[in-house]
Input
Amino acid sequence: GLLKNLYIGGIFPLNGSWAGGRGCLPAALMALHAVNERADILPGYRLNMVALNSECKPGLGMAKLYQLLYNDPVKIMLLGPGCSTVSTFVGQAAWMWNLVVLSYGSSSPALSNKARFPSFFRTHPSATIHNPTRVKLFKMFNWTRIATLQDTHEVFTSTMEDLEERCKQAGIEIAVRANFLGDPVDAVRNLKKQDARIIVGLFYEDKATKVFCQAYKEKLFYPRHVWFILGWYSDNWYTNVNGTNCTLEEMKAAVEGHFTTEGVMRSLYRADQIVSGEVVETVLKNMNESIKNAERIEKDHQLSEVVGFQEAPLAYDAVWALALALNKTQTALQRRGKSLEEFNYTSNEMMIEISQALNDTNFMGASGQVIFNDKGDRISWVQIEQMKGGRYERVGVYDSMKDNLLLDAQEFWPNNRKPEDRKIIQKEM
Ligand SMILES: CC1(C)CO[C@@H](CC(=O)O)CN1
Output
């Protein structure tokens, strides 16, 4: 028979400081199509999305939320926003209309605050996802004296607070803290003066070249000094030397050996987790084939240049997560002679049911296992890379849920001499 329609709202940044909607909207639409192909998901219904562009601006994002709310048809939940700055506003307001909000792109730790964002979930991990991995590596290398350098942005401040807390619990001291607003030169000089050896640096890509050029001047680099920075800059970010007074050679020396961490956004589903032996061969072959194909397609169409390409699997999985949760809710409602069609903005009854269903999410998606913690935050694996000869090499992956560190590499230091976290006073013989 004829399908009845259900609608969700969508807010995507198609331009602006993070135009991640360019990669994420197509992925969300792909998933919506796949979901509507499934007869066992919301049987009798077609799930539709009304998607609007926030331009990554909070004010415009709120205007789009009102546009979704004040125009028929009723939307039963909201997919997005992408940018943290927009989610910080929309996530608080949408709750007043009893909408569950499922973001695919927001990383700010502030969004984990359930008092401010009671109905907010995200398939994009919080920026604090890096911290358990950093602490794991500090412990593995026996470093208990750490330095931090950050640009003054709220997302970095709250990430550092979380890192400090986890370090304290692990008996690791943050002995040196340096901040900068704009120009990082003095802050980097300060690290040198305080003999910082193991440094966690949180800043955006445009400041990273200035930091490392100054690090070169201060001889604050590998292997005597070890940097841990964010892993989601563009691959050869360090070659962009204009605006600094360093040559490409000097920048290459400065960035050699540094580590990066980043949330895994594309499933690393390893064939060795497939149970039966003979399947492994075919899966490995197919997997390598599909990875090679994907990389070729990526290269041919410069897909990785599309902002939001790396987060696209998060948007794809967000649609699946909300479809599965709506399906579970609809089944429960129908048992009581009710339906999602009766959803309205003035009652919180269905929002609570949809939230509980979303809480139980647990499926293997395009971005890996999709699970939310009690704050509605995505738990994901973290990939660790190290810069070797101007190229990043994956050295490991950490699953903080199972405290499972999978190392690809065994040697990290030249002639296996591990850097120290402080000056070692030679003992009197
Ligand atoms: C890894 C990154 C680039 C972090 O910022 C996210 C956007 C945001 O938090 O505003 C998108 N993903």
About this structure: The CA atoms of residues 35 and 323 lie 7 Å apart.
